[in-house]
Design a protein that fits this description.
The protein has 2 domains: 117 residues, Response regulator (Rossmann fold, 3-Layer(aba) Sandwich), CATH 3.40.50.2300; 111 residues, Orthogonal Bundle (Arc Repressor Mutant, subunit A), CATH 1.10.10. The protein has 9 helices and 12 strands. Strands 2-1-3-4-5 form a 5-stranded parallel beta sheet, with helices on both faces. The radius of gyration is 20 Å and the shape is elongated. The C terminus is likely disordered.
Length: 244
């Protein structure tokens, strides 16, 4: 899962990032409430962890604005303000849970898992994704192609999810980087290509056709059908990518 941590205490943020990363999550961080708002509103995250006291915009205002804009992503608020009234304020602003500081990471993780399980289902939260000839289970990181189950690594699963959500359209390398690595990652020139190569080997073993097509000068495309047809350049242009 991809998680955004909005926390201005650098030690606390590093503690959360380390624990969440070791638990298999992709984590982005910011210490400013306004930056957190702009990042969260993109809808790219499965959950948010938000500190209450933040520069730029406090956590209560941040959560309230996200809810006003229709974002339904689960939000866990962390705060040193632990009275009943403070918890009520956080929940009324739109938080799904409120945890007082100091906290143990194991409780953060347990509460986060509970929020993810109980979140109301909608397109981003659906665990099973169907596109083209593939069915991906986001929780188990397994994909089924014509009855064959294939187990993926974390980043392979995230890359495939991005391709499946844009099935039949060109997805650029930058888009794939954003989907599977955090903002602080400094990629080498061919890190995406290497992951695509390994992903293809897994998906295509035993099949006569590759479901992932390279579009020279543009990126990659997941085929709509099992057997690929001729590439439609006009369709690639409609998706906002230069296919030349």
């Amino acid at each position: 899962m991809r998680i955004l941590v909005v926390e201005d205490d650098q030690r606390a943020a590093a503690y959360l990032v380390r624990g969440l990363s070791e638990s298999g999550h992709i984590v982005d961080t910011t210490e400013d409430g306004r930056d957190g708002l702009s990042m969260a509103i993109e809808g790219a995250y499965d959950a948010l962890i938000v500190d209450r006291r933040l520069p730029g915009m406090d956590g209560i205002a941040l959560v309230a604005q996200l809810r006003e804009r229709g974002l339904r992503t689960p939000i866990l608020m962390l705060s040193a303000l632990a009275s009943t009234q403070h918890r009520v304020e956080g929940l009324e602003a739109g938080c799904d849970d409120y945890l007082a500081k100091p906290y143990a990471f194991v409780e953060v993780l347990a509460r986060l898992d509970a929020l993810l399980r109980s979140a109301a289902p909608h397109p981003r939260d659906t665990l099973t994704l169907q596109a083209g000839p593939l069915r991906l289970n986001r929780a188990s990181r397994s994909v089924v192609r014509q009855g064959k189950t294939i187990v993926l690594q974390q980043r392979e699963s995230l890359i495939l999810e991005k391709l499946m959500r844009h099935c039949g359209q060109v997805v650029t390398r930058d888009m794939l980087l954003e989907s599977a690595w955090d903002y602080a990652f400094d990629p080498n020139d061919n890190v995406v290509d290497k992951h695509i190569y390994r992903l293809r080997r897994k998906l295509d073993e035993g099949f006569p056709y590759s479901v992932i097509r390279t579009v020279p000068g543009a990126g990659y495309l997941l085929e709509n059908e099992e057997e690929p047809g001729p590439f439609d350049a006009e369709k690639a242009q409609d998706s906002g990518v230069d296919a030349s």
